[in-house]
Amino acid sequence: MSDTSTPSIMQEVQPRKPWVNRGQSVRDMVRPTVLAGVVASVVVLVTGLAGPLGFYFAFVLAFIVVSFINGMRHDKVKAIDKVMTTLVTAGFATAFIPWASILFTVFKRGASAIYFGYFTHDMAYTAGDDELGMGGLSHALVGSLLILLMASVIAIPFGIVTALYITEVKGKLSGLVRVIVQSMSGVPSIVAGLFVYAVVVSRYSFSGFAGAISLAILMLPTVARTSEEVLKLVPEDLRSSAYALGASQMATTFRIVLPTARSGLITASMLGLARVAGETAPLILTAYYSAVYSLKVTGQPLASLPMYIFQNFSTGTDTALTRAWGGAAVLLSFIFILFIIARLAGRGSRK
Amino acid sequence: MSIATVDKPTDDGPPRRAITNQRNASDKRFRAVVTAGAMFAFVVLALIAGFLLFRGFEVFKEFGFGFLTSSTWDSGTGESLEGASFGVAAMLVGSVIVALMAMILALPFVIGTSLFLEYYIGKKLRAVLVSILDLMAAIPSIIYGLWGYLVLMPYAAGWAETINKYFGWIPIFKVDVENFDASPFISALVLGLMIIPIASSVTREVYSRAPQDQISAAYALGGSRWGALKAVVLPFGRSGLIGGMLLGLGRALGETVAVLLTLNLVFELKFQVLASAGGNVASLIASRIGEAGPSEIKALMAAGLVLFTLTLLVNFGASIIVSRTSKVAQ
To answer: What is the ipTM of this complex?
Structure first.
């Protein structure tokens, strides 16, 4: 900036740059917010809208009006732009209110069910409406882990092989396989359960193994599609180099391609697990539920976290519902942990 | 650089390998095994359709098209199909009503979320918010159902009452009995919430591929941000939006537990979305299988086949539309 105290003819003229986006100044942000807040408060006080939700909607409506009037100081185009910015932002923000509510309720109400013994007791001698210091979900946690382990043993190898067929073998049926995997990812979970019910359960009995088959069906497409994405990222040069050194395709796949993609494949498996860990519908038809801790995966029903929640929800008393929230908190934490592992493994592959 | 002179092969080195374009035996075996493994998905899909058809065939033979057009669900003696009467019309229509409502409720939020994440915020914040959105997509449906029944329903029943009070003259908002709990409306709210992250991840992906030069051109002509979005991004991403919403529709049609917990199943063809009565094929299967006799199980298998076919068609349409867009964009 030139010194204003010494005027001169040669004073530097600052060119105007109307096209530079100066962004919104703090004042431009604060004024409509405060104004909309005041209007919304008045609306909540005067009309039937009540509570935080009522305030929120009044606030959004008021903000739309205020931003329109604000924009009209320039022109109509600016005014419409401001209104749309408000609408788009509100569309995004509004979707987050219920999610915040879900997370908040699950962990707040779930916390009152969880005590130290919650992870070491089962429900063999405890009814759903007994007081909260008794019983636990060890049986459901172990059952879930067993079922997921078995499902992984089936789904992960087949998922990766399916991806290998598309990226390495590049067979004639690649397109068809991709379409099949896509369709399989759309199979409703209850249909997968019904299928296993028809094939396994109706002949033998409810079992953890049957549950694992139904979850494997749902898990396979996720693993296959994510693995395909990951394997595509392996540079073609690596394969060419291996072939140039005289390696067979099998050796190239096992010694070069798969190790290169390892962390990505871990991500694929974790995403597959996270996808099915909370599935309830197929388990109603396959593994069902048992209140007793057990490691037996055939011949008898096996408990799982989703079914523990479902069972306690069906009981419906206050303490049972609190137990259901407790189960939900454990299940959600479990899925979030799987997600974090997937994310960390994915970060490793990018380096 | 000069061309390296090739040494004449000497006898004391390792024997030269024959140059061939044939794959060796182990590679042939490897490729065969991988190919066989990849057929697993195909086999499973065929087995599902085959088994459901096989187990439900008698029902289709007995009731023919009546299975799709009748709404009675009476297992008769429970042992055989004689004297029993099964029809999924009410359930099928209920499934479609709830799923369509969920789509309509989710649509503005899907567009808002996709546009906001792609065009209103910076890269760093986007990465964070996208992973939060992915996490929300991973919340199990039973937790959505639990929350929908215990937390949302008291609010939503109030909203339903208000809608009924002012718009009750529209036939679908009419109710016969003043009970607004466990209605298709509430299930649709929960399902709508569930499909927002699924649909918006597809939509966002397509929106992000909108041609940057056209967006810049819109700005250069003096257009505002909304002007550029309206003129370039929204028309470009329309089929991506349709594909994403269809994918969400497929998910909503097949959803079981979230609906089972929040909907009062009634075997009657109804179009009153605010009333405490609705239908859903998936929930029907889950709720009836426990106490079903041999004949009813056959009927449930047939219902499963109907659901399977319906979702397969919807998903197929979705993937065709999405893949067509990505081809145009490349």
So the answer is: 0.88
